[in-house]
């Protein structure tokens, strides 16, 4: 349950992340020069919301559809560039806190760690006979980053703290606080877009971009301190607590940033003073109580780990990888930790890098990439009992849908709402690409609303919160349905299709050997729309609303162009059996119906299920970090535990800081997922995949140990969640289920699937009758709040 190292971080991807959803820091742990790289989740480039919609797209749409219908795909690609809008903005670093110590000497017994049981990063070392200890955490209750520095002898602490930033900034001080104030760029081009002026700042006094402030307060035990323009200077202290608070001028996705710095400073001052009124022990305990209330819900044991105490984490990765069951456990829990640290009520959703970014031009703008990455960030939220951490994304979807209504109307003449593959803090819903500079293979993908709505539905499916479904989820889902109903149109065979249609970031080879992106009715489009229609039909029935629309949705679902099986038995990615641009491509978009969807199952659609498996075989077991995580989830749905573990082995490979081979993912020394470079989605997707190996509930039943590998013969998991608002804990031995506990929050029918064993069911010491639905599946009724124990017999 602890990441630990015997040396300080030399690179950012060796530093350890702390966060409270809003504030984040990367802790380097140098004994003589501590460094915390700082982030705040609303700090973005840009001057506020812009009208990114492109009225020309509506005119061009019919031309593009005509070219596609005639099979002139390369020409359609070129023409579709006229449908693009501007690039969106980028997530920004805030600054850096540097602590320069003056204790000198030779450092001994050094250890740096991040304890997942209390979310505290620690640095411990000895100089002579004096032991120095640092504890650092980001408090959600008090909304500050806390740095506690202690020495084992009185008067041993002498250091200077200073703040700086990569942005234009100035530092100031009062008798009690050191602070910096700065401005963000008014515009930042994506890191992959080569322009003459990629980062543009305004004048500090008149800029319309985001303003920010970071402020430090100090609590002393012994010694004294002074503050001047050079920093905060500590002399001869026994213990020091530093509190860092930050504020930005962000006022909401639909408003420009506030123009003055006074309001920012006042809000930051109030927050810091409130925290300063508490002792370190009070701050620490409030942080631990808040964090553990979420983190302690789930436990996992996969097997013994001889390397856990003996080796630092980076060496465990390099020497053992997935053969160390304890390291797999650690990476599983790390995903839960990172979601708690980057996504809390009131915060922004976790972006491509969670909340941790040091670059002015971060990879892929560190934005919300909606054709897989943002969704993957939240796959673990419900299954791993972190519904509260799902809420920032659910709120963001609401905001995005508000902008998406105008995009649907202006760009396409459609009802409802639409969004595309990239979005930023201003909720840009139009396609990016700088009006034709981008590639339609990623820019022209108007399906993110359908995918995001899956998260709205899943939150209901796991919580059974009907009020949420009625007031928040279904109205947004309904609007996404309206767009899809207008976007769909019949082909020559009477099937409903989408056009232009892309399979995200992957091209096909035309009959004349050209590469093209846009076509008609990609498998992912059809799968996403099927999923949206199915969930919306169920939602309208539960709420007893929209009966005519429900009938229209059901009729449209029946007419969707069916999936195709290719010449070699694989599930086609496109509506025709074209060759792939790259048979080992990192995206496996056409397999959405397997995971995270529910359209394709072994019982309901056996031929398509088998074809999808053949497609996954063709893709291979390599890939970027997040791609490996998606394949882990897919192989879990295919119930192949050993193959799933092989993918985990590929993911648990050590990647060095400067390695950027996009075909080989892995993890960095700090267990961050390597795209490479760093993206956090693979961490979250991995945790979701391990949960999926142990419990599945997408097919109307709770499947226990569906993908248990031979290498994990004995273990247990506690606190996972299943659809229907049910908690699931289970233990196994000899590779077979021994006991499971099901708690039904609201009662109802419960179907259980197991592999090759018979079960007894009891509750409160009384046997519970059950029905054998078919071999391996039983069904019994549950009462709200009761615990049901299932045992192998």
Task: Describe the protein.
By secondary structure, the protein is α+β, with helices and mostly antiparallel strands. Helices cover 31% and strands 25% of the residues. It is built from 18 helices and 39 strands. The protein has a 9-stranded antiparallel sheet. Strands 2-3-4-5-10-17-16 form a 7-stranded antiparallel sheet. A hairpin with a 2-residue loop joins strand 32 and strand 33. Helix 9 packs parallel to helix 12.
How large is the radius of gyration? 27 Å
Q: Report helical residue fraction.
A: 25-40%
User: Distance N terminus to C terminus?
Assistant: 34 Å
Q: Name the structural class.
A: alpha+beta
User: In order across it, which strands form the biggest sheet?
Assistant: 1-6-7-8-9-18-15-12-11
Low-confidence stretches: none
Quick one: overall form? globular
Strand content: 25-35%
Compute the number of strand runs. Answer: 39
- Characterize the main sheet: 9 strands, antiparallel
Instruction: Count every helix, treating DSSP H or I runs of 4 or more residues as helices.
Output: 18
């Amino acid at each position: 349950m602890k990441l630990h190292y015997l040396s300080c971080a030399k690179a950012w991807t060796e530093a350890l992340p702390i966060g409270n959803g809003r504030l984040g820091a990367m802790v380097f742990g140098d004994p003589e020069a501590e460094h915390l790289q700082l982030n705040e989740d609303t700090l973005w480039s840009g001057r506020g919301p812009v009208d990114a919609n492109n009225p020309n797209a509506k005119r061009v749409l019919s031309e593009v559809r005509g070219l596609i219908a005639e099979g002139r795909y390369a020409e359609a690609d070129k023409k579709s560039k006229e449908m693009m809008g501007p690039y969106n903005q980028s997530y920004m670093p805030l600054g850096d806190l540097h602590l320069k110590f003056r204790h000198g000497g030779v450092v001994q017994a050094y250890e740096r760690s991040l304890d997942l049981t209390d979310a505290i990063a620690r640095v411990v070392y000895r100089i002579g006979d004096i032991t120095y200890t640092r504890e650092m955490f980001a408090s959600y209750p008090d909304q500050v980053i806390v740095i506690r520095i202690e020495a084992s002898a009185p008067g041993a602490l002498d250091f200077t703290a200073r703040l700086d930033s990569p942005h234009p900034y100035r530092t100031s001080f009062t008798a009690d606080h050191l602070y910096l104030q700065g401005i963000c760029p008014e515009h930042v081009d994506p890191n992959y877009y080569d322009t003459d002026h990629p980062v543009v700042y305004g004048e500090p006094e008149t800029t319309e971009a985001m303003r920010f402030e970071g402020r430090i307060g100090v609590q002393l035990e012994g010694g004294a301190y002074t503050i001047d323009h050079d920093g905060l200077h500590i002399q001869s202290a026994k213990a020091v607590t530093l509190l860092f608070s930050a504020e930005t001028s962000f006022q909401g996705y639909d408003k420009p940033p506030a123009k003055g710095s006074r309001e920012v400073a006042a809000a930051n001052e109030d927050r810091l003073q409130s925290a300063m009124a508490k002792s370190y022990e009070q701050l620490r305990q409030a942080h631990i109580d808040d964090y553990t209330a979420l983190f302690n819900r789930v436990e996992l044991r996969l097997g013994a780990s001889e390397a856990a105490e003996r080796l630092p984490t980076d060496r465990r990765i390099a020497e053992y990888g997935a053969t160390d069951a304890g390291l797999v456990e650690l990476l599983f829990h790390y995903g839960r930790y990172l979601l708690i640290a980057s996504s809390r009520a009131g915060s922004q959703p976790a972006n491509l890098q969670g909340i941790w970014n040091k670059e002015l031009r971060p990879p892929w703008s560190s934005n919300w990439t909606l054709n897989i990455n943002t969704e993957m960030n939240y796959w673990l939220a419900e299954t791993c009992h972190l519904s509260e951490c799902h809420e920032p994304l659910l709120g963001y979807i609401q905001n995005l849908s508000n902008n998406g209504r105008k995009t649907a109307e202006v760009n396409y003449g459609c009802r409802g709402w639409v969004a595309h593959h990239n979005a930023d803090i201003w909720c840009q819903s139009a396609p990016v690409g700088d009006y034709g500079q981008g590639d339609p293979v990623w820019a022209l993908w108007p399906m993110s609303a359908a995918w995001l709505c899956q998260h709205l539905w899943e939150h209901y499916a796991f919580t059974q919160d009907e009020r949420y479904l009625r007031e928040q989820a279904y109205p947004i889902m309904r609007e996404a349905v309206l767009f899809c109903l207008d976007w769909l149109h019949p082909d020559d065979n009477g099937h409903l299709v989408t056009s232009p249609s892309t399979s995200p970031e992957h091209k096909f080879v035309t009959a004349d050997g050209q590469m093209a992106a846009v076509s008609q009715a990609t498998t992912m489009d059809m799968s996403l729309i099927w999923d949206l229609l199915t969930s919306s039909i169920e939602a309208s029935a539960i709420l007893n609303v929209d009966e005519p629309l429900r009938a229209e949705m059901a009729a449209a679902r029946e007419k969707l162009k069916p999936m195709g099986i290719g010449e070699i038995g694989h599930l086609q990615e496109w509506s025709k059996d074209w060759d792939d641009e790259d048979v080992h491509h990192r995206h496996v978009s056409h397999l959405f119906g397997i995971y995270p969807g529910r359209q394709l199952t072994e019982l309901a659609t056996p031929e398509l299920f088998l074809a999808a498996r053949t497609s996954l075989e063709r893709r291979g077991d390599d890939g970027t970090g997040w791609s490996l995580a998606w394949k882990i989830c897919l192989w879990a749905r295919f119930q192949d535990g050993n193959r799933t573990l092989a993918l985990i082995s590929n993911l648990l490979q050590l990647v060095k800081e400067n390695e950027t081979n996009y075909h080989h993912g892995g993890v960095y020394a700090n267990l961050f997922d390597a795209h490479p470079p760093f993206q956090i989605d693979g961490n979250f997707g991995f945790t979701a995949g391990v949960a999926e190996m142990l419990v599945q509930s997408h097919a109307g039943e709770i499947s226990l140990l569906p993908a248990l590998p031979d290498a994990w013969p004995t273990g247990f998991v506690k606190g996972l969640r299943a659809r229907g608002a049910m908690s699931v804990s289970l233990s196994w031995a000899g590779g077979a289920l021994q006991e499971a506990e099901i708690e039904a929050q609201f009662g109802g029918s419960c179907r259980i699937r197991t592999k090759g064993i018979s079960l007894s069911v009891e509750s409160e010491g009384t046997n519970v009758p059950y029905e054998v639905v078919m071999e391996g599946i039983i069904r019994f009724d549950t009462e709200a709040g009761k615990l049901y124990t299932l045992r192998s017999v």
